[in-house]
Structures are given as C-alpha cells and as structure tokens.
Amino acid sequence: xxxxxxxxxxxxxxxxxxxxxxxxxxxxxxxxxxxxxxxxxxxxxxxxxxxxxxxxxxxxxxxxxxxxxxxxxxxxxxxxxxxxxxxxxxxxxxxxxx
Length: 98
Fold this sequence. Notes:
The protein has 98 residues and is of the alpha+beta class. It is 21% helix and 46% strand. The chain has one helix and six strands; from the N terminus they run ββββββα. The protein has one helix spanning 77-97, and strands spanning 9-18, 25-35, 38-50, 53-57, 60-62, 69-71. A hairpin with a 6-residue loop joins β1 (9-18) and β2 (25-35). The radius of gyration is 15 Å and the shape is globular.
C-alpha cells in the first residue's frame, strides 16, 4: 500500500455580497482555493438564514435527469467548515458595519 500523499491547501474569501429580499438567501460569496499552487475560484457559495443562525452551502446545480438540486462542489469536511467559519465572520462583520 502506497504512503498517503499530502497537499497544501489554502483559501481566501474574495467577495461576499449581502442579498436583501431573496427569502432565506442572505449573501453570496466567492472563494479562491489554492491546491499545491493551483488556484481555483468558486463562485455562488450561498449564505442562508436559518431561524437564529446562518448556514453556508456550496454552489448547486439542477440535475437534468431528476430535477434535484445537488452540490456543485464537495469539499472535505475540515476545509468546508473552515470556509464556512470565515464566510460567517465576514458576514457578521458586514452586518455590524452596515
């Protein structure tokens, strides 16, 4: 069995746009994820209002066969959670500064 390889992954939240009047949608974010020097831009990260909290979801697409909405990007749990924390921090800061 081969030894597991590791990769350096960093991310930057490049934009968070607050959205008003769109139901549960509170904001859309764009993120740059860098994997061993290769940068990928992810747009359409959704920030949703959920009662007394907000949640973050990956961009979605509609499956043409079933019509079901599916995540367009599936990240490892640890990376997804770190991105969500940073997006939430920015949204809350924007909220305080108006």
